[in-house]
Amino acid sequence: MKRLQKCCCCASTRTGTLITAVLGIILSIATIITVWVVEKHKVSFSTFIFDDDFDKKLSDLDIPRIILTLNLCFTILICSLLIVAVLKRRSWLMLPWVVLGIVLAIGLLISVLHTSITYYLMEDKTEEKEEHRGHVVLATAILIGGLIYLCLYLYLWAVVFSHYLDVRDEEERGRYRKAPYRR
After folding, report:
1. 68-83 per-position pLDDT tens digit
2. Could you say which of 4, 21, 101, 130 is the most buried, measured as most Cβ atoms within 10 Å of its Cβ?
């Protein structure tokens, strides 16, 4: 993979990495607030492993909200670690975010595809034309919006990964040594 030299054609990868970490923290906090403020009946949860009664019991106990909140707290922790890594120029502290980032990108792709396909398949089960049209529009919006979000996320991951590689190379050759092409 070719390293990026700039973030958004104007900022350094260091600045882009800091912005990415701060955005991760802000979005995680906003999601935690939204998950706990929005009414329960607006959020649907299914495991695909257990029956609907067990899924309802889990939802009534707020288990999905608690699990999501814990995941988002770990995201806040890893983004905070990324900020410290950038400020202290330590590549090994960036590694958890880099690994988590690519795993989340794969999960996001699967989630977008699964959700949009589910809504497309709902159209076959609906009797009314208006409800059918609503599911198609929602499925298309989820698919297009999710893929755009995935592309933006992958770009920001590439910015962080490029900065990680730059810092790692600097650590390997020594901070105060001459660049390898000037020896």
Report:
1. 899 999 999 999 999 9
2. 21
